[in-house]
Amino acid sequence: MKKILKLLVLVLVIAFLYFGFTTYPKLDLISGFSAKSIASGHFLDNRPLDLIQKMDNDIKMIDLASNSIDEAGKFATSNVYGLKERKAIYREGLGAVLINDDFDVSKPYLLPKRAKSKPLPFPYGNIDPADTLFSNVDYSKLKKAVDDSFDKNEGKTKRTRAVVVLYKDKLIAEKYDTGFTKDSKILGWSMTKSITSSAFGVLAKQGKIDIYKPAPIAEWKNDDRKNITINDLLHMNSGLEWEENYSTICDATKMLFQAEDMGKVQMDKPAQFKPDTHWNYSSGTTNLLSRILKSQFKTQQEYLDFWYSAVIDKIGMSSMIVEQDMSGTFVGSSYGWATPRDWSKFGLLYLHKGNWNGEQILDESWVKYTSTPTNTSEGKYGAQFWLNAGGKFPDVPRDMYYCSGYQGQMVAIIPSLDMVIVRMGLKEEDQGFDFNGFLKGIIDSVKK
Questions:
Q1: Roughly how many angstroms between the first and final C-alpha of the chain, as a whole number?
Q2: Cβ–Cβ contacts within 10 Å for residue 133, how many?
Q3: Is residue 271 within 8 Å of 277, Cβ to Cβ?
Q4: d(Cα 205, Cα 199) in Å, to the nearest integer?
Q5: Which of 354, 336, 372, 134 is closest to 234 using CA atoms?
Q6: Residue 170, CB half-sphere, CA atoms under 13 Å: how many?
Q7: Cα(274)–Cα(228) distance, rounded to whole angstroms?
Q8: CA–CA distance from 191 to each of 75, 343, 384, 402, 407 (Å)?
Q9: Given CB 3.0 to 4.6 Å as the disulfide criterion, which of 41, 44, 220, 272 pairs with 225?
Q10: Which among 269, 311, 275 is positioned nearest to 288, based on CA atoms?
C-alpha cells in the first residue's frame, strides 16, 4: 500500500512539474487572448458569452479559460484554473484593449472623429441595393458555390461565417451563418495590415512621406538597422529578427497579449539579415509601421483621425473600428473590426486602382506597388497584401491579390474579372477549408 501511495505521489509531482514547464507559462497568453476576444466580440458586436466561447474561443488551449463579462463596467475577465487572470476593457469608439495592472482606467482618452457615410446604395453607401441580374452569371451555380462554403447542420468542417461577392460594382451573392447578419462586425485579424498599408499610401500621395528613405527611428541610427526603409517594412523584408508561430509562445503572441507598446517589440529586435534580402512575415513589423505613422503627426488626435478620414470613412466603412494597444497606437497588424460588406468596400477601392466613386484616394501607382511581388517572397507577398502571382491558388487568376487574416479571413481582389470576394470564418486552408475550390466555384459561375 505504501508503495502505491508513493507511486501516486510521484505521478502527481511529475504531472505538476510537467504542467509548470509546459502549460503554466502559456496561461497569461491564454487568459489574455480569451479576455480580449470576449470584450471585443461582446461589446463591439453584441455577441453573447456562450456564442463567443463556442465559436471565437473554440481554439485548443484557449478553451481552458473561464470567462465573465461585467456589463456595467464594460469589461471582460478570464483566467485558467483560477490562475493568471487578465482583463480587457471596452471604450466606446475605440473598441477593447487588454490591460495590465498598471493601466489607469480613469485616465481620459481621445476618440477619433468619424464622418457619416453618404446615403447611397451599397457598395458606395449603406442602403440596401436593388437586385441586379447579369446575363453572364449562372446564379444557381453561384448559389451552390457559396452554400457549399458553409457547414450543414451542426458541422464544424468549414466554419464560414459570411460570404459577400461583388461583380462589376454590384452585389451578386451574400450569405451569413446562423447568428450573423450584414450588420455583424467581424474581426479581420491580419487583413488589418492592408488597412495600415493604405494609410501610408495616402500619406505618400499627399507627398508627406518618402517610403524609400530610412525609417525615422532614432534608436536605429547607430547600428545595422539604420538602412532599413519604410519600403522594406511594408514588404516584410527588413531583415529584423521575428518569430510568428501561433501554436506556441513566440514574439507575435507575446506582443499581442502582453506588450503595452506593440510597435516597440519589433523596433527593439536586432537585424538578422540585410534589408531586402530575406522575406519574413511579421505582425510586429506592421505594428512598428503604425508606430511610425503615429510619429508623423503632431498630436494624438490627428493620428486617430487620419486613419478614418484618409481611408476608412472616406470609403464608407462606417462599421469599422481599429483597436489600440495600451500606448494608444492602433494595432495595425490585427485588430480591425468591420461588417463583411464594409470589408468588401475596401476590396473595391483596390479593384478600382485607388479610385472611390470618382475620387482618387490612392495613386494608381500605389495600388500597383502593393500588388507587385516583393523580393524573396516567391510571388506570394506585396506590400501588406498577399498575392496569387506565384500560383498558390491554381484555379484562380494570377492577378488576384488579397487581404488575409487568421482563421481564414479573406478579401480577394480579382481585376481581370472585375470581382471582389469576401469570406469570413474560423478555419484556414491548412485546417481544411478549400479556398481554391471556394474561389473557383464562384469564378466559374461567371461566363467569360
A1: 80
A2: 8
A3: no
A4: 10
A5: 372
A6: 8
A7: 8
A8: 25, 9, 9, 9, 11
A9: 220
A10: 269
> Residues 192-202: pLDDT tens digits?
999 999 999 99
Nearest to residue 409, comparing CAs of 188, 151, 244?
Answer: 188
* Gap between the Cα atoms of 414 and 9, Å rounded: 62
Name the DSSP class of 103. Answer: -
The partner residues of 88 in beta bridges, in order of sequence, read 76, 98
pLDDT tens string 326-383 = 999 999 999 999 999 999 999 999 999 999 999 999 999 999 999 999 999 999 999 9
Among 55, 86, 175, 32, smallest CA distance to 427 is for: 55
- Read off the DSSP letter of residue 118: P
Cα 418 to Cα 166, 167, 351, 358, 413: the distances in Å are: 8, 6, 7, 17, 8
Beta bridge partner(s), residue 337 = 187, 321
Strand partners, 422: 164, 411
**All 3 cell numbers of residue 78?**
478570464
Do you find a cis peptide bond into 119, omega within 30 degrees of 0? no
Contact 41, 56 (CB under 8 A): yes
Mean pLDDT per 10-residue interval, the chain, length 448 residues = 61 45 75 98 98 95 96 98 97 97 94 94 95 95 97 89 98 96 98 98 98 98 96 98 91 96 98 97 98 98 98 98 98 98 98 98 98 95 98 98 97 98 92 94 94
